[in-house]
Amino acid sequence: MNFLAHGWLARGGTDDFLYGNLIADGVKGRDLDAWAADVARGIRHHRRVDAYVDAHPVVRGARARAPTPQRRYAGIALDLLWDHFLARHLLVPERDALVMRCYRVLDGRVAPHRLEAMMPALVSQDWLRGYADFAFTCRAVAGVGRRIAGPNHLARLVPWMERDYALLARDFASLWDDLEATLDVAP
Fold first, then answer.
1. How far apart are the first and last CA of the chain?
2. Does the global pTM surpass 0.85?
3. Which of the two residues, 35 and 150, has the higher pLDDT score?
């Protein structure tokens, strides 16, 4: 899952809890004592969601269908694709309310060093709403691939995502039902 999904699953918590969920990928290590209690809870929640998703049989099946040369990168592409499907799944008013809350929570806070440059772009370029557009999501996948050394294996996954779109949409629906039932912190 990526920012939108983590935000949705954390929406019932405090702003600090939501913030922790949104910045968790930039926080390394197990020692979270430097963070406020609710931010640390959010970081741990984000990590539980990631572990659940990575181990889910639907996700394992989707990764197994990815082209062999890029299969080890498929989890990254799928995380962004799940946000695409979620952006299309949510009702526009609830999605937009969540997006505005996420941007408000991120505004004025210093992101961890690893995310420091990315967070302003996420807000100013409205990535969370942008994920509803499949072409935007594909560009985001390729963009992440440019930040990884070597050939852009993520960009090479885009044709697979296009070909398997309907099957991946069904995968998302199954995964999302399980994920919401297990780890949603609803209001």
1. 20
2. yes
3. 35
